[in-house]
Amino acid sequence: MADYTIRNAVVEDCEHIYNNTKDLAIFLNPAYPSKLTLDTFREDGFGTNPLFRCHVAEMIDSGEIIGHTLFFPSYSSLTGKCMYMEDLYVSEHARGKGIGKALFKRLAQLSLKEGCQDLLWETLNSNKTAIKFYKRHGAVDCTEKENSHCFRLDGDQMKKLAET
C-alpha cells in the first residue's frame, strides 16, 4: 500500500505549491524566473474565481506535500473541451516511487470525468526525463508528430502589440 495519498489541494497547501512551482521554474529555465507573488498565486488559485486547480501528493504519516499537479480547463476548436496541465512536480527526495504517475493518472481520470477530449501540457526539450516519462504513459510529442510550435507573448510584448 502507498504511504502517500493524492487529494485536491486546499488553500492551506498554497504556499507549499507556490514554493515548488518556483523551484520547478528555476530548475527548468533559470533565465525565465517566476514573476508571480504568493498573494497573487493564492488569489488566482484559491480565491473567489479560481483560475486553476491542483492535486497534491501528501505523505500519510507526516502530512508532507511531496508533489502536485496544477491544471485548468482549456478548449480546442478541433476537439472541444481539454484540460491543460501547467505543472507536474514531485519533490526530489520522493522521485522514482510512482508518485508522478499517480498524480498524472489522477489528472487523466478527472479530465475524462469532466468530459475533456485531450490533456495538454508542455515540457522543455532539455527535460529528457519528463519526455521519457510522458511517452512511456502514451503521450504524443506534438512537436514531432504535428510539427507544431508553442508561442508566448510576455507582458512587455503584449503591451507593445496592444499599443500598435
UniProtKB/TrEMBL annotation:
Location of the N-acetyltransferase domain: 4-163
Xref: InterPro entries: Acyl_CoA_acyltransferase (IPR016181), Diverse_Substrate_AcTransf (IPR051016), GNAT_dom (IPR000182)
Entry annotated with the keyword Acyltransferase: yes
SUPFAM superfamilies: Acyl-CoA N-acyltransferases (Nat) (SSF55729)
Protein family membership: Belongs to the acetyltransferase family.
Domain of life: Eukaryota
GO molecular function, one term: N-acetyltransferase activity
Keywords from the UniProt entry: Acyltransferase, Transferase
Organism per entry: Patella caerulea
Protein name: N-acetyltransferase domain-containing protein
Pfam annotation, one family: Acetyltransf_1
UniProt KW Acyltransferase keyword: yes
